[in-house]
Amino acid sequence: MSAFAAYRLGFDIAILEKTQNSPAGQLTHNEFVGWVDEKRILDEFVLASDIITLENEFVDSGILHQIELTGKKVIPGSKTIGLIQDKFIQKQTLEKAGIPVAPFVEIKSEDDYNRVKKILNLPFLLKSKKMGYDGYGNALINSEDDFRKGYNQLVTRNPELLAEKFIEFEKELAVMVVRTKNEIITYPVVETIQENHICKVVIAPAPIDPKLLIAAAEIGIGSVKSVEGFGLFGVEFFIDKEDNILVNEMAPRPHNSGHYTIEACETSQFENHIRSVLDMPLGSTKMVKKNAVMINLLGKREGKGVVENYEESLSEPNLHLHIYGKERSRLGRKMGHITLLGDELNDVLSKAKRIEKQIII
To answer: Is this structure's pTM higher than 0.85?
Structure first.
């Protein structure tokens, strides 16, 4: 989706991806198949590129720094990525900047249960410092037995862990923040609804007190500034029972909670991603309708990543259907999304939910 936006603005793209014929790789002749630990492939990709940006935060910041030493621009930069990709360092950085976060503590060993329980009380979350997403890399802890099981499971994914106080939230929110040398703007704050730890529904704008919308946007801007970030960032929040807004985590890239912007805003998050990476003037983030609902299309079966029933899927004339071109579908995998716009939120939401149930992929 960022590639589409770059082409619309007249730019060419190169893609580095682990497998051939990836969704983005299908759009360019400059597809480099391999990964950042393969020096020859990485060198060829860097040589073909003028400016490098990211689709995820899992490329080690040290490798990004080595790219920067060649004279090529990386946005967001290696320093910013280093402050975000380790969740413990991310939380430390946010807390130091005065950004509200849930209490957290570093895990030092498998025998840390009593120390952590004393600090955070029960329940608390055990988290991988790196490589966690969509609930992967998290474990809910209610007992010492949970702790030992969670610890032994998570260290196989990443050996370094942290623990975080469990927040009984009323809602989950998110905001996209875009920053260049001259501008910093936000998209509308949205509500996100999860299913099995995966974002399922996004409602824009979030149906909450306008004062909270303003506060969340300001905290989002502060979060990006705290990591010296430039480019596009997704910032996720919890609202607790006392209407406190706490930052859950940040993503230095286009974010699932911003997919609705393709149709719902005057400039999509993907176009502003490209504009911000190139330090161009940013486009308007104003919504074109009063409300928008985006629902992720999660895999409902194992098999080819194609829609089985376009006839029913496209029967709603106001539906915006996006299929990502992933070769294989599996249960719960993000295969695409739908977006509906309208003036009455309840009508838009109920219609979007009905349509999503009909789509088989």
So the answer is: yes
